[in-house]
Design brief:
203 residues; 79% helix; mainly alpha; rod-shaped
Length: 203
Amino acid sequence: MTDSEKTNCGAAGSVEVIRLTHKESRESLTRLDAYLLRLDAKATTLLGFISGVSLFLATRDTNGFWKSISYLALLGSAVVAFLALAPRSFKDSPPPGPLAIAASKLDERAVLLLLRQKCINDYTKNFAVHVTKRKLWRAALFLFLTGVALTIATTTLGARNEQSEQSRTEPAGTRASEHATQSPTKPAGSNPSSKPIQSGSHR
């Protein structure tokens, strides 16, 4: 085999390797995009649950410190969930126009190198977005679970306080009537020691 044939074989082999690495980089970028879409779906679903719990809390006839804290936790969870949906500056492969211009001026190996490097750069940027979304999603979930726990505590404590308040504000007349019902009084004429007065004429 001559030196030119060895050079051609080496060039063909390097092109094949570049093509394989570009394919793997492209598949990794596609998988990462799928993960980002899943995080968006989770954040959207969490917003629906936040709305449901907030409406449930609004229907409870309870007021006070714990209800306000519950609203704050749910509000914070909603804000963080919206922030998790905000990062959308995803990077993708170069547009067809610039790619066609570059391909007309470069050979196959150079074009493959360009595409592979572009995929690697896009993956790095998208992975940073993925990390941010994941942290925000976890923070939103934590705040939501905290809000749910506070809502349960608020509902339970509110029911107990309402019962105790009703027992304290019960009218005194009602208690007196209940006591009279439980222990009825005897009529005055039912005293066995009293004797009837006999009427008669004295001689």
